[in-house]
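FAQ: What does the model actually see?

It sees only this:
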Amino acid sequence: MAELKSFDKDNELSTKWSDDADKMYSKVFGKVDHIDFMDFDTEEGKKEQLSGIDKKIYTEDGRIITVDEKTHRNSTDVVLEIWSDVLTNKQGWLFTSKADYISQIEPRQDKMFIVSMKTLRKYAVQHPEQTIKSNAIHWQVSEKNGKTWKSGHVNIKEKEFVDWANRTPGVERPVIVPLHEYI
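And it is asked to produce this:
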């Protein structure tokens, strides 16, 4: 049976950690000039949010890096959303996000895990039995404003994923940043 989750409650947790995440991006991407949060209440922000972009990071060397932020309460794994809503056949952010990077903030584990979407997608293609064809998909039912959807994700052991990235040519290595150094 799928777990019922409150979208608003999860969003509260993400909002709480969002500013702290901003402090950590310079460790990963170099000197940051400024960061724009994609506010769902603006036309541009809504468009970007719907494409999986939570923030645009502008670096001092002129790069613009897009990030999709996720906050996990209890996970020690790399979490990949395979289905955003299986009831409407909508694929998850692993396939649809236009962000350059995913940052997974894990407060109870005292870390933020940052990895490129290209690396995550390459892992999924090389490990279909553990990801896209997995029988180990965890299902959850979420609700907001009376709307209900059923999403599905897989958990990949962080050490297994990092070991794979370290030995696989041509993939960008994930970065793990301790939260306590920045909060």
